[in-house]
Amino acid sequence: MSLDVNDLVIEIGGRRVVDGVGFSVAAGQRFGLIGESGSGKSLTTLAILGLLPEGATATGSIRLDGEELLGRPDRELAAVRGSRIGTVFQDPLTALNPLRTIGRQLVEPLELHGGLRRSERHDAAVRLAELVRLPDPERIVGRYPHQLSGGQRQRVAIGIAVACRPGLLLADEPTTALDVTIQAEILALFGRLVSETDASLVFVTHDLAVLSQIATDVLVLAHGREVESGPVEQILAAPRHEVTAGLVAAARATSWRPAEGGAA
Ligand SMILES: Nc1ncnc2c1ncn2[C@@H]1O[C@H](COP(=O)(O)OP(=O)(O)OP(=O)(O)O)[C@@H](O)[C@H]1O
C-alpha cells in the first residue's frame, strides 16, 4: 500500500509545529522518519492516522493508495485505522486495556473489521499469539497485560497491529521503552512480519542505529521541517546536514547491534 504525504502543515495554538513535510512510501517499502525530540515525527504520524490532538489543524495532503485521508470524517478514518493501517506505539502498557485478556485484545481488530465470529475467537487469538512468538500461546491468551513482561506486551501490541493484515504499518519508537536485548528481538520480529505480510512501513525513531536495521530510506526532520532525505546507507555514510551528522555520531556511539538472523 503506498503512502504520499505532501506539504503537510500542522499548527497548534497558532504555532507551526510541522512545516511543509512531504515524503512517499511505495508499496512494500520500509521508510523511516527520524529527528530529535520535538522535531514533529509523532504529530506527522498522528496526522496520517487522523488522531491529532484537540486544537491541532492540518493542511496539505495525505494519500493512501491515492485516496486522500486528510479532512475525511472521523468515522471513515476509524475504519481505516486497524484495518488498512496497523500501529505500534512506544509504551505497550498504555496501548493495552488492563481489564481485558490478551486474547480478547489480539482479536479485537478482527471483530471490528473482519467480522470474526465468537466461536472463532479463541483459535484466532492463539494463531496471532503464535505469529508474534509469545510463549505458551494457549495459556497466554487468557492472561492480562500486567501478567506479561514489557517485551511480551509489545509482542501483543504488534499482534494487534498486524491482525487484519494492514497494507501499512506505522511504528512510533516501538522499541524505545524496552531493555536493550529485548529491543533487538522485537525489531527482528517486526522486520519479519513486515516482510511476510508485504506491508509498507513507516518507522519513527530518534535512533539511526535502530532505523538502519529496519528501514531502507529515511527523512530527517528538525523543528518540523525536512532537513534531508535519502537511502539510510547514504545518509549514514555522508550526512549533509549538521542535525543528521549529530544523529550519525550518536548511532556510531551505540554499541548495540541486533541479533543476527533474527532472534524473533
Ligand atoms: N498536544 C500538543 N499541544 C501543544 N504542542 C504540542 C502537542 N503535541 C506536540 N506539540 C509540539 O509539537 C512539536 C512536535 O512534537 P512531536 O511530538 O511531533 O515531536 P517528536 O519529534 O515526535 O518528539 P518526541 O521524539 O519527543 O516524541 C513539539 O514542539 C511539541 O512541543
TrEMBL record:
Chief localization: membrane
UniProt-annotated location(s): Cell membrane
Alphabetized SUPFAM superfamilies for the sequence: P-loop containing nucleoside triphosphate hydrolases
Membrane topology: Peripheral membrane protein
Xref: InterPro entries: AAA+_ATPase, ABC_Ni/Peptide_Import, ABC_transporter-like_ATP-bd, ABC_transporter-like_CS, P-loop_NTPase
Annotated ABC transporter domain residues: 3-248
Lineage top rank: taxon: Bacteria
Pfam families to which the protein is assigned, alphabetical: ABC_tran
Keywords: ATP-binding, Cell membrane, Membrane, Nucleotide-binding, Transport
Family listed: Belongs to the ABC transporter superfamily.
PANTHER family found in the cross-reference section: DIPEPTIDE TRANSPORT ATP-BINDING PROTEIN DPPD, OLIGOPEPTIDE TRANSPORT ATP-BINDING PROTEIN APPD
Name of the molecule in the record: ABC transporter domain-containing protein
Annotated source species: Gryllotalpicola daejeonensis
